[in-house]
Amino acid sequence: MLRLATLLSLCLALVNGLPHVPRIPGVLPRLPRIVGGVEAAPGEFPHQISMQRDGLFGLAHSCGGSIISETYVVTACHCVEGRNAASIFVLAGEHDFSVNSGNEQLILASQLIEHEHYDGQTFTNDIALIQLGAPLVFNDFVQTIAMPAQMELVSPGTNCTTTGWGTTTEGGSIPDILRKVTLPVVSDADCRVSYGVTDIADHMLCAGLPEGGKDACQGDSGGPFVCNGLLHGLTSWGYGCARPNYPGIYTEVAYFRDWVDAHAV
């Protein structure tokens, strides 16, 4: 049975692999959860993977990612920065960590390809590829997701869906089942009012509600942000979690499509 062994193993994975997030007065740092979402149905998001790290307590979920071919997964660079491929596994076809459905495929990574201009302080160019040591077998529970063309941008106001695993309340228990939440895209101009002009690069995508309450968070890092059936974003960073006037920040895939095509060969 594939499941998270202990809460401690998850905590160690989070401490060792997720980004430092800037703090501002009265706002908590990002926490590992989908906030304000609901459980996904089995097979609803067959492109979603769990990136698992092999550590002291065995395998533990640390980040999300999306299948783009039989042998490549795209994720956030902060999820793999400085890591050894020999300690990274991709778990595809997963829905409920507590149940062995027979649809799961666990494959060791063979190579981690980080964007050459990634900056861990600003989260610019927060994108990476995981090359798998063996090809995935596609079925109803394991499939690729299409990406937008280079500079095929999504419009502000578009409702998109992000998915992932993680605690559902601050200090709460770890849910075994994949969760989803739908969020509207926020314009770069509005996002810069919240975060500052220099913090939001053109290749970042913002999404959230003005009143807060719904968001993707750190344990969902690298996971998909899907608009109209296309992978438009990768969960990256943000101030707090589901806080009013602080939308979540995603790597905007349309700025990196040429980079992905050049490296996923």
Automatic annotation (TrEMBL):
Molecular function as annotated in GO:
serine-type endopeptidase activity
Q: Which Gene3D superfamilies match?
A: Trypsin-like serine proteases
> Which keywords accompany this UniProt record?
Disulfide bond, Hydrolase, Protease, Serine protease, Signal, Zymogen
What SMART domains has UniProt attached to this entry?
Answer: Tryp_SPc
Which biological process terms from the Gene Ontology are attached to this UniProt entry? proteolysis
List the signal peptide residues. 1-17
Q: SUPFAM superfamilies given for it?
A: Trypsin-like serine proteases
Query: What's the superkingdom here?
Result: Eukaryota
> Does the record's keyword annotation contain Disulfide bond?
yes
* Residue ranges annotated for the Peptidase S1 domain, each copy included: 34-265
Q: Which family does it belong to?
A: Belongs to the peptidase S1 family.
Q: What is this protein called?
A: Peptidase S1 domain-containing protein
